[in-house]
Amino acid sequence: MNQLNLLIRAISFLIIAVILYSCGDTGNESSKIEIYLLKDVILTDEGVAISNMPNKEDLDSSYYNKIDTLRVRYDTLSKEFIYAGRFNAEKSKIKEKPFISNTEIIGLDLSKSVFVFTESAAKKIVNIQSSMKYGKQFVILKDGNILLTGYFWSKNSSYGSTWYCIEYDGTQNISKRNEFSFYKGNGINAMKREKIEKDMPHIGELVNAFEKSDRLISEN
Q1: Nearest to 220 by CA among 120, 112, 136
Q2: What is the DSSP letter of 79?
Q3: What is the pLDDT of residue 27?
Q4: In a 10 Å sphere around its CB, with 0-12 CB exposed, 13-18 middle and 19+ buried, how is residue 216 labelled?
Q5: Which helix (H) or strand (E) is 7 found in, with range?
Q6: 27-79 confidence digits (pLDDT tens)
Q7: How far is CA 122 from CA 59, 105, 130, in A?
Q8: Are 205 and 193 in contact (CB under 8 A)?
Q9: What is the pTM of this model?
Q10: CA-CA distance, 209 to 121, in Å (whole number)?
């Protein structure tokens, strides 16, 4: 009887140990990554308001009248207008259903600075109706928490953003695996864009999410 009790106790300890190890092992922790669109436009707080820009009186009146003085800001350092700048979002501001679901995101490739999407996601992105000046705002969530804000940006736009962008081409061919350029804009000149690096604001958290879900395709 004592031997039976000892065996039962040993099995019980083994079961408990396995459970505790499983709970403590986060090596295979996954992350649910989704991309949402917004209910309404969120204005950037980057730069200064047009009404406060220096030498405003020197602007051509016909040009000034075309500027959306609510959405457009001015960078006093670069002396450029900001059409799509940094913005913060709250969960109450995003739409109820994801635009791109977790299963539609294949991965993030830092060496190429691209997002990789499935066929269904790519079709939605290339058909998105975004402004050539302002892009289309999005929010990336990990397990329901906001990680990063940014813009879907048309490759055909002659404007540039100062924030994170996923670039698309409405005429690109769609396959089962589709790469979309992911970068940080650096002003009106789109050629000044910055390749995504781990030490950029918020990017470390994004990279960590892809690592945990085994979707970080390569590293710098």
Answers
A1: 112
A2: T
A3: 41
A4: middle
A5: helix 2-24
A6: 445 789 999 999 999 999 999 998 888 877 666 665 667 789 899 999 999 88
A7: 41, 10, 15
A8: no
A9: 0.83
A10: 19
